[in-house]
């Protein structure tokens, strides 16, 4: 791959945008509410607070965690009968530079307008990678992040790229033989990245500061299922497209989706080894709860994958004869065909140990 991969979700408000295709991610954000409320309850001791959401993307989800935090802050202060002057809450939203910040800024203006006088809201955007430094030392009280930390810092795990090992082969036997090497390389890259993330935030949070994170993961250490990792569904659809002659096999062999979903045990070990944070809570809610599975339809999941992966797929595979849209329209059709049998998508999800990790951390005092 010649140029650097452009990681961002589909921009704008159109039919294929992330803004219109992130209802499943929003369901996850809502499940973080109790953890954010607990963190805020512990933190509301001073008049002002700084909250950052890392990997905010754009559309309604960009402000979902900030809204939960503002709401919790306001209610907590009311419950504590804090006297005037009004409190101040600073909300900072981060994502990579290619994110649709123009839309985010407009949403922030509206967010401020709808907020009222208490607390006084101060807002800002902070473009850059959350694997590097983003904020001044000891300037943050609460860091939130939803559905983002499974994205790796590199376009491909370094070990695989250096040795030229394809992440996904159309041939199931070859894939099985390589699986341990591929998954191991992804795991090592995630470990390196997540340690860097923790170290940066340890500098930026005040002592006792909190982090509430959700990321794609898996419910067991077992990686036997071919669909254990979030990127494998997308690779599988692309592999079907190779079989149909829509895209080249060689192209698929050099396409790395920079995503890794750790197990609860894996992430716990990394946090303990890095040493800056106490684990206040860790949960892996079922993906197949009744409310959640009602949201999972083939069309919705296919459109969600499109909204998240279109930029890197189009950048790598280029356009088909029917143009840039062509390859992605075919991607959605292929996915829907795969899951066309009623219940087949739900079965696929039930049979693999994927999940979402929810983690609440506290920065140690020294
Ligand atoms: C699936 S979206 C999640 C958006 C939103 N938080 C939500 O829950 O719907 C993942 C976001 O993480 C961002 N991202 C990925 N790697 C990043 C990095 N290294 N630094 C900052 N943002 C990153 C992507 O650009 C994308 O907007």
From TrEMBL:
Keywords on record: Magnesium, Metal-binding
Taxonomic superkingdom: Eukaryota
Pfam families named among the record's database cross-references: Methyltransf_7
A molecular function (GO) term: metal ion binding
SUPFAM superfamilies: S-adenosyl-L-methionine-dependent methyltransferases (SSF53335)
Protein's name in the database: Jasmonate O-methyltransferase
Organism: Oryza meridionalis
